[in-house]
Amino acid sequence: MATQQELDDLKARELDAMCVNESELKHPWYYNLKYAVVGVVFGIVFIKAEIISWFRIQEMFRFQSFHMYGVIGTAVIVGAISVFLIKKLGIKTIHGEKITFADKEFNKGNIYGGLMFGFGWAITGACPGPLFAQLGSGVLSISIVILSAIAGTWTYGWLRDKLPH
């Protein structure tokens, strides 16, 4: 059972967007190249599955196609099963570190953030996940969306203490 100090530390880390399972292990710079490789493969899968397509995203928001709902639903199901198995079996990281999940408190900021996220996705036709895959596939206009996402993230960090949490 975690102490109150550990729980307070965990809450502070979550607000500061630090990874709860942040590894204390230090690695050389090239150690992270495997993540770049996985990212490139993931981007190719996004492109081949047409989930970065503006037209597919518009079809979803107009309820004209099940394609994107199927992809998102599958991801939610796989994620839920994965979290269940990690908790149930006590699975650890590849370095043997314990994986922990913290309960999140609901607040009205979740509603505002979700609405802003959804409106941005509907207007731009781009979820933050595939932004770089879209850029890599030659959609250069998406760079405006990437810069806007960075500006929005910076603005949130700047205003975070004044926002409802």
TrEMBL record:
Q: Does the record's keyword annotation contain Plastid? A: no
Q: Which Pfam families would you find in this protein's record?
A: Sulf_transp
Has keyword Ion transport? Answer: no
Q: Which UniProt keywords apply?
A: Membrane, Transmembrane, Transmembrane helix
Matches recorded under InterPro entries:
Sulf_transp_TsuA/YedE
TM segment ranges:
35-55, 67-90, 111-133, 139-159
Recorded protein name is: Transporter
Q: Which organism is it from?
A: Sandaracinomonas limnophila
Its lineage reads: Bacteria, Pseudomonadati, Bacteroidota, Cytophagia, Cytophagales
